[in-house]
Amino acid sequence: MTKKSISTRFKVTGSGKLIRRTMGQGHFKTKRNGSGIRLKRKDVTVDRADRLIIQKYL
């Protein structure tokens, strides 16, 4: 059974890792400096413990 919300937030790479977006990208960007905004543009791999839980729903 696939959860639609999980399948939109996480992507599986070719090697089987899960990738998600970094949090805090939506708004309130004026409080941050430029380097903080640029760091949040990158995608992040999901930790192993969380990956096992998320893969049940994909």
- Parts with pLDDT < 50 across at least 5 consecutive residues: none
- Give the number of helices: 3
- Compute the average pLDDT: 89
The counted number of beta strands is 3
CATH architecture verdict? Irregular
Described by strand count, sense and barrel closure, the largest sheet is: 3 strands, antiparallel
Q: Between the first and last Cα atoms, what is the distance in angstroms?
A: 7 Å
| Helicity range | 25-40%
What name is given to the CATH topology? Factor Xa Inhibitor
Following the backbone from N to C, one meets helices and strands in this order, namely HEEHEH
Q: In what order do the strands lie side by side in the largest sheet?
A: 1-2-3
Q: How would you describe the shape?
A: elongated
Radius of gyration, CA atoms, in whole angstroms: 14 Å
Structural class: alpha+beta
CATH class: Few Secondary Structures
Strand content: 15-25%
Count of individual domains: 1
Oligomer: single chain
